[in-house]
């Protein structure tokens, strides 16, 4: 089985693939202070509960693919693969790793690995032109051309960041649960804040995607818009431009990149 690990700024998502099928997944908090040994214990605890894997760390794992936006965590995971999975092929997404997607930006090395991995999966699953909207710590919009090239994107504050900022900076506001309110016009402070978050972000998605699609293709209707990320379900029902919801897009991209690189190792 293939273990895929997507390390974001707030959460880390792990997926277990049997061939092309994801058979298990976990979401944990990202903690830059965790050491390689702590991460190994965490992995053993999660995977030790799966019936298709053995009791010992590494039993049943045939390959590992990792991407991380937090350099310190990537460093520790590199040590995990060396010390605890020494005989298992591992692909860590970084400059020099073959993705199959040309990066047409001013400085390709500064583009987040997860954004490139999302583009890889988008091209494979839906083709181009496409726009990937990833609802994470930041809300990112990534454009893929009709030829399968990563051409750039947009980065905006994420939903949780915005909720936290309102609670910290608003003297009479507090941090709230991100949930859909009864109506757009809130009847109390909590509902008013929820409406601002849910409908505000839906409007942001529609506006940004519309502008990007007009730049990306002669006919904006030809652009496939894919939503992913843990908070995507909050906006799906309110946005008018999202065509596909693929919650495991990054994990699928990691599987594809692993397959494109493992034969070269």
Automatic annotation (TrEMBL):
A monovalent cation. Ammonium or potassium. The keyword Transferase applies. ATP binds at residues 6-13, 137. InterPro entries: ATPase_NBD, Type_III_PanK. The keyword Metal-binding applies. Pathway: Cofactor biosynthesis; coenzyme A biosynthesis; CoA from (R)-pantothenate: step 1/5. K(+) binds at residue 134. It catalyses: (R)-pantothenate + ATP = (R)-4'-phosphopantothenate + ADP + H(+). Its cofactor is NH4(+); K(+). Transmembrane segments: none annotated. It holds the Pfam family Pan_kinase. The active site is at residue 114. HAMAP family: Pantothen_kinase_3. Homodimer. This is Type III pantothenate kinase. The lineage of its organism: Bacteria, Bacillati, Actinomycetota, Actinomycetes, Kitasatosporales. The gene is coaX.
